[in-house]
Specification:
- By secondary structure, this protein is mainly α.
- It folds into two domains: about 30 residues; about 40 residues.
- It has two helices and two strands; from the N terminus they run E-E-H-H.
- It has a two-stranded antiparallel ribbon.
- Strand 1 and strand 2 form a beta hairpin.
- The model has no long low-confidence stretch (mean pLDDT about 85).
Length: about 90
Amino acid sequence: MTTPPKISAKGPTNRPEPKSKAAESRAVEREKRWREVTGWFRSVASEMKRVTWPSRDEWVAATMVVVGLVVIVALWTRLISWIAELIFHPNGA
């Protein structure tokens, strides 16, 4: 089914109304931005396929190291705090 021709001062036409230059410029910018964003996601997906992911054993070992270091730092911080408390508040006041 075809649309009926539009009637203008110059006669019937099937062309869409021309956009203003500003609207056309915005549409071009929007399309350019969309291409950049989709291109970025495509490149990220491509890069993620090249990553060598660690095995389960490596994940567990790394997690244990992190948890162990957090515990050590927490104990060290508590020790320093306790020593500072003894120095600056000798009577527990």
